[in-house]
Amino acid sequence: MKLNVKKETLKKIGISASIFIVCWIIVMGIIDKIIMPIVTRQGDDTEVPNVIDLSQQAAEARIKDADLAAVLGGEEYDPRRPKGTVINQTPDAGSKVKKGRRVVMTLSKGSASAIVPTLSGFTLREARLLLEREGLQPGSIVWYSDDTKPDGVIIGSIPASGTVMRLNAQVQLLVNRIETEMTVRVPNFVGLDLQRARVVAEENYLLIGDLNYATNDDLLPETVMAQSMEAGQNVKKWSTINLTISATE
User: Fold this and answer.
1) Distance (Å, rounded) from C-alpha 165 to C-alpha 133?
2) 86-90 and 102-108 as β-strands: parallel, antiparallel, unpaired?
3) In the predicted model, what is the mean pLDDT of residues 16-26?
4) Please, which residues have CB within 8 angstroms of residue 174's CB and are 6 or more apart in sequence?
5) Using alpha carbons only, what angle is made at residue 121 by residues 117 and 124, rounded to the nearest 5 degrees?
6) Beta pairing partners, 170
7) Banded model confidence at residue 43, pLDDT cuts 50, 70, 90
8) Distance between CA 223 and CA 239 in Å, rounded?
9) Is residue 162 left, alpha or beta, with left meaning phi > 0 and alpha meaning psi from -120 to 50?
10) Model confidence at 2: pLDDT above 60
11) How far apart are CA 29 and CA 117, in angstroms?
12) Strand partners, 154
């Protein structure tokens, strides 16, 4: 009888020990998977700084100081803020985020306007590039003759340099043209659209003369079909070349 009681007591002790071990494993799992990550990650959070109205350089420095990564997300026109300043950020200022998170900045492109650059002394090609860089378009050519200045250079613009214009507005170019015996090679205009043909002519010191339109449904309208001077031949500088242009009925 005593032997049976002893066996029963040992059995109860074994069950209790097993329950204790299982409970201990569960508790340690909770500590390891839930409590410890919360405790150890408390210092990983940081507050997103406000970088609106700052320059890109200043904004990047402030974001870096907060242990975050600055990313440029794009540019937009904003007449209220100078060009190059931050006009938007994601996440918003004051947000609590993990260290190392990216903060995307949008910069101002300024107002939708442009300033006519100084073009005097540049060639037509150079002037076109300068205008396009400022967000403007070259307009019609006004020819002048000034023996005191080099042939073919810009001697002014309409409007003058420094004028504020709307974006993509056209600027007339005043070009010096001096009659010389110098010859130039005629480029091939066939296949070019009329606008491009005018640019090529100007860059090669030739003038576009008469435009003869002919119906051609196989070509886009305003495409050069023929030219009055053969491509490759040498002609006098500032010679006039006539073009045949495609048209639809």
Assistant:
1) 14
2) antiparallel
3) 68
4) 142, 144, 154, 155, 156, 157, 158
5) 75
6) 137
7) low
8) 21
9) left
10) no
11) 71
12) 175
**For residues 186 and 230, is the Cβ–Cβ distance under 8 A?**
yes
For the chain, give the mean pLDDT: 86
**Tokens read off for 156:** 């002014």
Instruction: Quickly tell me which residue has 């378009």 as its tokens.
Output: 137
Lowest-pLDDT range of 11-25, 27-41, 179-193:
27-41
How far, in Å, CA of 224 to CA of 111, rounded?
Answer: 38
In contact, 137 and 168? CB cutoff 8 Å:
yes
Residue type, 177: R
Tokens encoding 245:
């242009």
| String of DSSP letters for the chain | -HHHHHHHHHHHHHHHHHHHHHHHHHHHHHIIIIIHHHHHTGGGEEEPPP-TTSBHHHHHHHHHHTT-EEEEEEEE--TTS-TTBEEEEESPTT-EEETT-EEEEEEE--SSEEEPPP-TT-BHHHHHHHHHHTT-EEEEEEEE--TTS-TTBEEEEESPTT-EEETT-EEEEEEE----S-EEEPP--TTSBHHHHHHHHHHTT-EEEEEEEEE-TTS-TTBEEEESS-TT-EEETT-EEEEEEEE--
Burial of 249 (0-12, 13-18, 19+ CB in 10 A): exposed
Structure tokens at 67: 């242990």
Amino acid at 182: M
Helices 194-203 & 124-133 angle (0-180, nearest 10): 130
Distance between CA atoms of residues 96 and 65, nearest Å: 15
Among all chains, which residue has been given the structure tokens 């200022």?
93
Cβ-contact 188, 142 below 8 angstroms: no
